[in-house]
Amino acid sequence: MHIELGALIHKAHTELVLEGLANHPSVVVAFVAGGRSNDLFEYREFGNYGEASIVTVIADEAASDEILNLLHSVCGLDSSKEGVVFAGKPLVRISVAEAS
């Protein structure tokens, strides 16, 4: 079974997160959406808002703790406390196209 994991992080950590997930054998797919946040980050590039990345990961449920720990450490959340990682409920069905 698969599970959706995610992170709301500062945009500066996005590349490191994707590199960390790229070769993980339990990650089915990972993608990023951009946005702005006025409450997660001390550094705010746009007045009251800082650039944020919303990372979504679909992975094997058995590896969810390992991947959450990876997201937490790569994003520096153990020291900065500027972001959120989360896990959803197991997914009933997914459909992902094979990479060509």
Relevant terms:
about 100 residues; alpha+beta; Alpha-Beta Plaits; four-stranded antiparallel β-sheet; 4 strands; globular
Q: Could you walk me through the main structural features you see in this protein, from its secondary elements to its overall organization?
A:
By secondary structure, the protein is α+β, with helices and mostly antiparallel strands. It has one domain (2-91): Alpha-Beta Plaits, CATH 3.30.70.120. Helix content is 20%, strand content 39%. It contains 2 helices and 4 strands, in the order E-H-E-E-H-E. It has helices at 14-22, 64-74; strands at 2-10, 27-37, 50-60, 84-91. A 4-stranded antiparallel sheet has the order 2-3-1-4, with helices on one face. Helix 1 (14-22) packs antiparallel against helix 2 (64-74). The longest helix has 11 residues, at 64-74. It is globular. It starts with a strand and ends in a 9-residue tail after the last strand. The model has no long low-confidence stretch (mean pLDDT 82).
